[in-house]
Amino acid sequence: MTLKTLTNDNAATGLWIALIAALSIGGSLAFACAAPLAAIGALAGTKMKSGEGVALVAVAWLSNQIVGYGILDYPVTADSFAWGAVIGVASNVAFYGARAVSIAAGASTLALASAFLAAFAVYELALYGAGLVLGSSDDAFSVAVVERIFVINLVSFAGLLLLHRAAVAFSLIRSNAEALATA
Known about the structure:
183 residues; mainly alpha; disordered N terminus; disordered C terminus
């Protein structure tokens, strides 16, 4: 690998992370607390090197928090900050859940679906567990709410996979196999 290739790869990865962060801002504006962070964790866990994936999840979560507190007027309270931190942890747990399934199952369509389901499940379980400690209403984890969040994340994950495929096709980023082969 040449220095030029390394620099181009780093620039492409930075642009990819910035693009997903920008989409995360749109998701945060559209869905507020239901931003598709589990989908972003699943994408990062299945399509990126570990460090890059963690960076993507962190930037997407931070973008969500900036939109929430800066535009959507989230309450500036200890409880709100605690939930923001929990959402950040849950987003990382989603990444690692998807990563574990992806490593074990490969890159087939079934493996991608399994990785997404794992990411969503551990994301929601982390939030539910935090709700037991921090307190939350039963409505926050009702079937209707979880179903709505699942659909938002599922559609987002499908869209992110299509965007990833287009970025690889146009040689804007490397495919997961190419990226891992040069790691």
